[in-house]
Amino acid sequence: MAAPLPPGVVDLCQVPALAPPPGVVPNFVDPVNLSLPTLVVGGIFAAISCIFVAGRIYANWAVLDLTLVGYILTKCYTGIIMGLHELSRHAWDVPLCSYLSDYTMKMLFTSNVFLGPTQFVVKVAILTLYLQIFAVQRPVRYAIWGGVALCALVYLPHPIVVFIFSAPRVGHPWIDVVLSGSSTKLAFYAPLHGIGSIIIDIYIFVLPVVILSKLKLAKKKKLQIIAVFLTASLGIISSCFACYWRLVIAFKAGDYTWNEAQLFIWIMVEHDVAIIVGCMPAVAGLVKTQSAKSAFLSSLRSKLQGSHKTISKQSGDETPKQGLILPQYSGRAARADYYELHNSMSDMRTDRSAAEKDFVVQTTSPLEGSILRTTDISQESRPYRAGC
Questions:
Q1: Percent of the chain at pLDDT above 90?
Q2: Which of 27, 271, 308, 376 is least enclosed, having the fewest CB within 10 Å?
Q3: DSSP three-state, residue 347
Q4: At what angle do helices 256-293 and 219-229 cross, to 10 degrees?
Q5: How many C-beta atoms surround the C-beta of residue 36 within 10 A?
């Protein structure tokens, strides 16, 4: 429902939210907008983070941590931003009645309330993961808890500031927030929030790299482990872009709806990247375990690793060594009293003496004067009958 009309204005739905630049005509019907990028980016990253969270839960189903809570908060925030996608256009293409409506004001207020707690939970979830993996020495634990304290300092004041500057007084309409100008004060707090996010993301990225660099591991193994945590670099990139648009909104008056749309996209990316980083170690371990169990991947890996060995054996001495030749079975099939079940469902019975249960020893080229022992094996079969 549109806000009450100020005196002298006939229809706010025919007035743009911002005066257009010279030569530009407002377009309320089909303007250039960021609705599609907002929906696509939000949907794709929501699906990717959902896959990683599912893998995290599957790998550690008995352990409930902040990752699942962060995922729920992240999807709530993404849903709110997607609900505002129709405002993802230039301000002169937005009807003033739409921007000043109670629906828009409440959605913007709710998104701001969710922002601080959501970012706090998703970042602390990563640090608690570090606490589980790396907290062997006291300095490491102090460093991780220092990161948690930094997250609390940057993110937890945010909802308090939002309630102070973006909520109307009791009994007053939502449009008073805009008319009083109090909401603009929140824009000057936003850059501090953005810079703090960059510092936290850099800290989350550097901390495991420093810890792993001091471990006594093989260089290849160390690089593999570090590569798992390199996804945190995407969080730094998204935080930098989000901070840029916060600075633009705070210090460059003008196309605020377009700038807000850009900011919202990068905040969604920042949230989902944090979820992915928190799930990456568990998912990487799960993929490694499942790939080891896969018959196709194991066969392919053995072929790739053993191809040069086969070639070297074929090019070497091909004269077979004399001695014991065993059947090409392994495990239970290598035992002399093992018999394979065939589809004929015949009951195979073999009569042989206890002294002859060893494998037959034969030489590839019997020498003169050697003793060759042969064993006669008699075998009979009869059709299988149910109930016998």
A1: 33
A2: 376
A3: strand
A4: 140
A5: 10
Those residues whose C-beta lies under 8 Å from the C-beta of residue 366, and which sit 6 or more positions away, are: 372
Sign of the Cα pseudo-torsion (253, 257, 258, 261, in order): positive
Distance (Å) of CA 34 to CA 10, 42, 362: 29, 12, 80
- pLDDT for 100 equals 86
pLDDT tens profile 124-163: 999 998 888 887 788 889 999 999 999 999 999 999 999 9
Q: Which residue spans within 79-194 are E strands per DSSP? A: none
3-state helix, strand, coil in the chain (%, to 5): 65, 5, 30
Tokens in use for 73?
A: 């908060």
Contact 340, 303 (CB under 8 A): no
* CA separation for the pair 278, 129 (Å, rounded): 7
What single-letter DSSP state applies at residue 2? Answer: P
Q: What is the band of 210 on the pLDDT scale with cuts at 50, 70, 90?
A: confident
Reply yes or no on whether the pLDDT at 292 is more than 80: no
Residue with tokens 């707090």: 189
Residue pair 274/122 in contact by the 8 Å Cβ criterion? yes
* Euclidean distance between the first and the last CA atom of the chain, given in angstroms as a whole number: 83
Instruction: Answer whether residue 278 shows pLDDT above 80.
Output: yes
Residues forming a β-bridge with 168? none
Residue 349 phi, psi dihedral angles, 5° rounding = -130, 130
* Predicted local distance difference test score (pLDDT) of residue 365: 47
State the DSSP H helix or E strand holding residue 66, giving kind and residue range, or none if neither: helix 66-83
Looking at the DSSP assignment, which residues form a beta bridge with residue 350?
379
Please give the radius of gyration of the chain, using alpha carbons only, rounded to the nearest integer: 35
Output phi, psi for 21, to 5 deg: -65, 160
pLDDT tens digits for 55-86?
Answer: 888 877 655 578 889 999 999 999 999 999 88
Q: What is the DSSP letter of 374?
A: -
Determine contact, residues 131/58, Cβ cutoff 8 Å. no
Going by C-alpha positions, the residue among 16, 9, 4 that lies closest to residue 179 is: 4
Q: Which two tokens stand for residue 61?
A: 């189903």
Give me the domains of the chain, ranges plus CATH numbers: 34-283 (1.20.1070)
DSSP state of 86: G
Q: Which residues does 311 contact at the CB level (< 8 Å), separation at least 6? A: none
Q: Does residue 12 contact residue 100 with C-beta atoms inside 8 Å?
A: yes
The conformation of residue 333, written as its DSSP 8-state character, comes to G
